[in-house]
Write a structure and sequence with these properties.
Order of helices and strands: EEHEEEHEHHHEHHE
Number of strands: 8
Number of helices: 7
Strand content: 35-45%
Radius of gyration: 21 Å
Distance between the termini: 32 Å
Length: 213
């Protein structure tokens, strides 16, 4: 862990990482996660994770530059978020002042990337065997479910269509899934509170989604 650029005793830069945490997957366990990994042929995990956060006093931006977790035999997930309009008052010890500063902040961007290295195909093969079908039949079932159910959840905006198509492509050939959402003006607490559905949110965002890059 590395912390720096302290402001009123609070670090405005923080980086933490954990590299190569080795774990053997138990073969006898009551834990649902371990029970799921065993049939997939995963007997060992080598986990790494990283957290990287920085606040810029000049631009008044707080960046979660990286929040990630991964393993060579599982793949990885990486998230980045940019928050704007966050002044120095956000780091004061006076709660009402700090609260007001945080409530005035806006989220301007979020970036999610998933990398698959074969785990999804193993899961499909396992489900196919259980359902007495071929892996390709099971894959097509999932593609059909994505095409039907995601629009029900996400709505019919251009952003929703982009995400649905990218997820469908990922299911067909699971290598990577990348979704980037941006708001020019940013979205604050009041904006989120006024939204009644995911569709309301997506219509306020510029979303780019792609698979298998």
């Amino acid at each position: 862990m590395d912390a720096g650029h302290f402001l009123r005793g609070i670090p405005t830069e923080l980086t933490a990482s954990l590299d190569h945490l080795a774990l053997d997957v138990p073969t006898v366990t009551d834990d649902a996660l371990w029970q799921r990994l065993n049939p997939l042929g995963i007997t060992h995990l080598d986990l790494s994770t990283r957290f990287d956060l920085k606040w810029d006093q000049v631009t008044k931006e707080l960046g979660l530059r990286e929040l990630s977790i991964g393993a060579p035999n599982l793949g990885s997930a990486t998230l980045a978020i940019k928050i704007a309009n966050l002044p120095v008052e956000a780091f004061t010890a006076e709660f009402p002042v700090a609260e007001a500063a945080w409530l005035a902040a806006v989220v301007k961007a979020a970036d999610l990337r998933l990398i698959d290295v074969g785990l999804f195909d193993k899961e499909i093969a396992l489900e196919a065997a259980s359902g007495k079908m071929t892996p390709e039949q099971r894959r097509q079932d999932i593609v059909a479910a994505v095409a039907t159910e995601l629009p029900r959840v996400l709505g019919a905006s251009a952003a929703a269509v982009n995400i649905t198509r990218a997820v469908e492509a990922f299911v067909r050939m699971p290598k990577s899934l990348h979704i980037v959402a941006r708001s020019e003006q940013g979205l604050g607490v009041a904006d989120f509170a006024a939204m009644k559905s995911v569709d309301d949110l997506l219509r306020r965002l510029d979303v780019r989604a792609s698979a298998d890059e």
